């Protein structure tokens, strides 16, 4: 009687979220050690690996690469002594040289596309590290993947996505020349989410306010060296998080989730901060229980999350259980963004635009006067199923008040 | 010491020649016949012996000759029908039977045919390793004879006085190149050498009239200067006794070479396989009538051995041979585990060298002055040819057993000037010109080596080694096929490779031939310092070595180095890292080393360039270590592509470095053409610096 064990998604890693199979690191027939990684999963913009629950031989793969999986799904099977049927191994690329006539001195080289040629040392690395061709860019002649290319890939941080495959030139339907860039799984997920949130779930409405940044600028100038002395980089975002907390406290309905028969109002304010990863997309790390933190605490947590996001070191829980989201879109230059698509299943999303010195009209001793102030537009896009203009503007008023009167 | 031959007229057929121990001769003759009978009637039909050669008819004369070769510095060499001679020199019957039975012990421990004999230790003449190639036995005995004169007159070893070299051959062998090369040497140098031709009228099936006009070599050599000739009937006991004792004494008394031709019947076929259908029935009957055995019986009947005594002797001999046969059959089969041993000189488990019984300096316990692998360069740079000359000089000085010879090596100082002045310094006996026969040069060197000397022959150009191929090949296998009883270490210096122009005759390399040939070390230095180290090491080594002197390096500026000292020696099989780097491994040697260095500089990249220095053995470890790091390898050699030594290196890499390779293993060599004469054509085919650099870049970018 052979002992077998199923490879399943362990508890606590996938609660409620959807994952897809990324890459199988082993194939049926391969020997695996206990706790050796056998498959990579892609979840909420973070990749995780599932390890073999026991030593043995990978018996069968039940979920293929790219397939969606839920917690509790059986991904594969490991048996103590062997697979029932061998999966056919991937054929190595065949390199066929023409027969040499005595007059031919030169060996026929592969001209053109050599991206599928794998030298012995490269194949060895692939097998040792569980890699495949699509992960690595070849810089050798004709696009060949060289030993150094693989070494460089292994030395670079584990990417959340596979390397972009080379764009293949395919004929278009019309007469416009173009190139196809296949979707990464992150892109696909973002696409699905945006359509879902904006067009199927929530009727979006956006309210626009503006705020004077002077107070927090002055405060930041004062606090920054003190924070730095404690190893913490103080950003404006920390203030926005703090102000959001105060605003949520004033308007708890904003910090909520719509259910069919009720609105769930959260007691914790878990503020997600939208963080761009360059070309690759967007992640939203969450500062949990921000209502318990002071500015230093918020700044520290923000720093930690941003660092880890940039170095691909986040874990799924970093991005789970957010109740409210801030989008700092102004960092890249936009003044106003409306709507900003709500991060489901939340009820609202705050947008902060680019800071701009503007001439404002203020009343001084009953007289109108012009002053130059550092201003920012701030928006709140809401789910109009459960929020109206009243809560929206009350929220924003409080937000702006906290920012403009910061001490 | 040896009395002049007592002159007996042929009429005294019944006078017992006093020189010989006839009872012993009778015993030996009966023994030889009993062994022939045993093999023909039992062992061959039972397929216990696969190659069977009887000596019936030849036996009496050989035994008589052998009984005269009693000087401890005598040497004899024969061919496949020489067992009676060996019996008379003390061959143990059991050993003699065990050889054809392919058992352990004996001449070769089952490695060679049972009649290819050698005897390294006897009371009289030793028997030099025969070769299976007819005709190749002559020039080594000429070498031995020259060694006798050298040790006697140059080294002043009185124990060598009166010794001779004696070579047996059939009437067929007088047509071979080796016979004439040896004859030339023996007569021009007046060597103490005895040629013994057993004329049975046939070489397998070919009659002697095809080998020399009229079939009688002595008639045709009658006017050959410096050669004393004897001819007679090898079956007539008295006549043969007179001729043989006279001839042997003639040579022993330093009168020069002699040739004895005795007619004998070949009473069996060429071998056990031969049915002799090419002989007429009358001829066969006539041969039978000339059987020397009844003739000897009759010769001794009246005075020495009565009929009764003869029969008793015969019975006794038969019993002894039977008993020896049982013991030989009981010997174990040789152990396959040892079949690869003794190709080269080996050391035992405790690191002691396992020295051959006979041959070379090591078998006489020669010691050398101290040496070092650290060079001590002094003074200005010198040409590689000058460095070679200085090395020869220092070894000639410190080792009195060194002899340097070849065509034009003496007074002229060599056509490449490598031996300039050495003849004047060391004299004709030690540094001398040879006759124009490369077979003779190398065969002679083999004989000199057997006699405990260190011969350093020169082949003037690589291509001219072709006629010496047989002697070179046979020399390389001596140790293996005699199971380490004999070895013939020497250093053959061979200039070759291109020079300012090329051509098919003077510019060959083809060093790969000796890497594939068994038992030869091959050195191929790229510069003067390495040349000194490798040449000195070769001249002190217990293995035969080929030392390749590239013509363009002999005086090329790139190969010049200061002389590294008289103690400097380089081990074989250790490559030199000319440069180091991770981008590529380049394996090369000889004249290509400098070109690879320049090409590497042209690419501007850091790479490992390895100068192998020696082709056999070669530094596999250094090459593999480098390729495992760089993952790309380019082999550059001058020899043409197909099956050049680069192919061997590439095959080793394909196996041992397979999993580390990131690019195909490439070779850049001359194409498969002979070397062209016109310099433009030459430069188009020999790898140039530009071509090498281009190939390097291609490999690094692939």
Rg estimate of chain B, integer Å:
28 Å
Largest sheet of chain B: 6 strands, parallel
N-to-C SSE series of chain A?
EEEEEEEEHHHEHHEEEEEEHEEEEH
Distance between the termini of chain A: 72 Å
Mean pLDDT of chain B: 95
Task: Indicate the overall shape of chain A.
Answer: elongated
Pick out its properties.
heterodimer; A: 407 residues; alpha+beta; OB fold (Dihydrolipoamide Acetyltransferase, E2P); Chloramphenicol Acetyltransferase; 2 domains; 7-stranded mixed sheet; 4-stranded antiparallel sheet; 7 helices; 19 strands; 24% strand; elongated; B: 702 residues; alpha/beta; 6-stranded parallel sheet; 5-stranded mixed sheet; 23 helices; 22 strands; 37% helix; disordered N terminus
Q: What would you say this structure looks like, in words?
A:
The complex is a heterodimer of chains A (407) and B (702). Chain A is α+β, with helices and mostly antiparallel strands. Chain A folds into 2 domains: 4-159, OB fold (Dihydrolipoamide Acetyltransferase, E2P); 186-404, Chloramphenicol acetyltransferase-like domain (Chloramphenicol Acetyltransferase, 2-Layer Sandwich), CATH 3.30.559.10. Helices cover 24% and strands 24% of the residues of chain A. Chain A has 7 helices and 19 strands. Chain A has helices spanning 120-129, 147-155, 185-201, 214-229, 236-250, 295-310, 389-404; strands spanning 4-8, 19-24, 31-32, 37-43, 46-51, 56-61, 68-69, 74-79, 204-212, 256-258, 263-265, 271-273, 275-276, 282-283, 286-287, 324-327, 348-352, 356-364, 367-383. In chain A, strands 9, 12, 15, 16, 17, 18 and 19 form a 7-stranded mixed β-sheet that branches. A 4-stranded antiparallel β-sheet of chain A has the order 1-8-6-3, with no helix packed on it. Chain A has a 4-stranded antiparallel β-sheet with strand order 5-4-2-7, with no helix packed on it. In chain A, α5 packs across α6. Chain A is elongated and about 85 Å long. The model of chain A is unreliable at 85-108 and 159-164 (pLDDT under 50). Chain B has 702 residues and is of the alpha/beta class. Helices cover 37% and strands 15% of the residues of chain B. Chain B has 23 helices and 22 strands. In chain B, the strands form 6 sheets. A 6-stranded parallel β-sheet of chain B has the order 2-1-3-4-8-7, with helices on both faces. Chain B is elongated and about 95 Å long. Residues 1-9 of chain B have low confidence and may be disordered.
